[in-house]
UniProtKB/TrEMBL annotation, chains A, B, C:
Record localization: Cell membrane
Organism of origin: Aquimarina gracilis
One Pfam family matching this protein: Gly_transporter
Name of the molecule in the record: Trimeric intracellular cation channel family protein
Keywords of this entry: Cell membrane, Membrane, Transmembrane, Transmembrane helix
Keyword Transmembrane helix: yes
Membrane topology: Multi-pass membrane protein
Annotated ranges, domain Glycine transporter: 6-75, 92-165
Residues passing through the membrane, by range: 6-23, 30-47, 59-79, 91-110, 116-137, 149-167, 173-194
Family: Belongs to the UPF0126 family.
Keyword Cell membrane found: yes
Origin: domain of life: Bacteria
Length: 205, 205, 205
């Protein structure tokens, strides 16, 4: 197992926990909890695969992640009242997941020979759209459209990846730089409560 | 026409009626009623086809079902105030639909050479996700995430199908056993008002 | 650049503006505004491409529209308080967009050798489903299911296209006739406040 695989697993675990907590907060039943955990962890990659025509989608070709998500969700349910104390590490895991999944998405775009802007979009979708599908299924306006720099950090990471890639930098350095950039942006944003500007339309009175 | 085809038609009819009634309850207009009936009847199979890369999706390759859904929806609108008396048979039809569509989904997965757990997932998606898309379009939390054993019955049926298939049982016996299992679970669940457990998170006061 | 290309651009521009205004009305942040503008303009075509298996989807193969949508959305944000005066032309652009996108969808269906009813469905999805995805992301019941003749105009246009095509009419005449039919239906419907009938279910008291 490579360092990259380990990070992939960390990302999947973090997203599964985040999905399971989210579902329990919304009082979904046992089945709902598993589905939402599953969707949060693999939704972004699934949408990416569908858009580029990589079918059967990844989780159908390699089922390891399914069992991982199942196990993590079961643990989340058992430990649900203790996870509160894990919130800080959860935020870190989630951010690591965002970093890793962005990298995976960008790289798949490059391998498919797509244009740089599309590679960045694929990275962002892989990183963020699991959460979007989770929020849609739970009947809420996806949180990334409202207040987080979440997607913006992912976009910045994607641009960083593509730039370093075009400069022929060593792959491992690209991975680490991209992930670090995304993590640092998220940490700064959350620490200083930065948010993207809103543009409201004036209505006449 | 085989017995299997007849059941397929029954399932499509039941899901179309259920979608049309659902749309009228939400005061959608004529177009909305047809779209929701259509989506409820073919949504699960469409998501399955997209995920495994079976495109153009089934209803584009064989349009018989489209005309069937159109006719059934028209009848549902005309008879909308009489369908109340049909509720019990509707529940039965709907459950038959769940059984048949689960079988179709599992079998497509097996033919595509996918792993057993994925075949079960495809069966469940084929059976249940029409209703999920219907609820999302109608801006509600999908009902299967909240209180029904619906999906659980479909999963049990899928596991039954795969087990019998691996034991080299005759195909017709597999079909009947799987469908019966799903129907019996649903009947028991509804009769005894069984539901999956909820796991809520304690909040400090 | 052909007349057809010019219309395509006009349609994309109109849908992007409509999406951006919609997002600002819902107080989404900067990222949300761009995503919703993007989804409104390319959502219909994306769903069409996924259903027929035309992947990577169109906007990944030709990125011109992405830059166009980005520019238009930026302008919409800057001019957001002046766009009020443009409402009438916006409605016209939007209707032109519906006409053009319906044509594009029908034609793609014909080229893929699909049945007439499927070609009409593809035209309607290309024209309307960007707005449907926009409404789902914004957590509202899609407006086309509730009060507009929007989709119905698109369906009528699709049927017109197919009929003329089967009669071997010159392609440019088909384009103009289809677009005009859709635009005229929309204008009449809005002017005379026509809407599709609702069918409600009587409840016993």
């Amino acid at each position: 197992m490579t360092f990259f695989d380990a990070l992939d697993i960390l990302g999947t675990v973090a997203f599964a926990i985040s999905g399971a907590l989210s579902a329990m907060n919304r009082k979904l039943d046992l089945f709902g909890i598993f589905i939402i955990a599953f969707v949060t962890a693999i939704g972004g990659g699934t949408i990416r695969d569908i858009l580029i025509g990589n079918t059967p989608v990844s989780w159908m070709q390699n089922t390891t992640n399914l069992y991982l998500i199942g196990g993590v969700t079961t643990m989340s349910i058992i430990l649900r009242n203790k996870l509160d104390y894990l919130k800080k590490s959860l935020f870190l895991f989630d951010t690591i997941g965002l970093g890793i999944f962005t990298i995976i998405g960008v790289e798949i775009g490059i391998k498919a020979g797509l244009e740089p802007i599309i590679c960045v979009a694929l990275g962002t979708m892989t990183g963020c759209f699991g959460g979007v599908v989770r929020d849609i299924l739970c009947n809420e306006i996806p949180v990334i459209f409202r207040k987080e720099i979440y997607a913006t950090a992912s976009i910045a990471g994607g641009i960083c990846f593509i730039s370093l890639y075009n400069a022929n930098i060593d792959q491992n350095i690209i991975y680490v730089s991209t992930a670090l950039l995304i993590i640092i942006i998220r940490l700064i944003v959350v620490k200083y409560r930065i948010s993207l500007p809103l543009f409201t339309i004036k209505t006449k009175k």
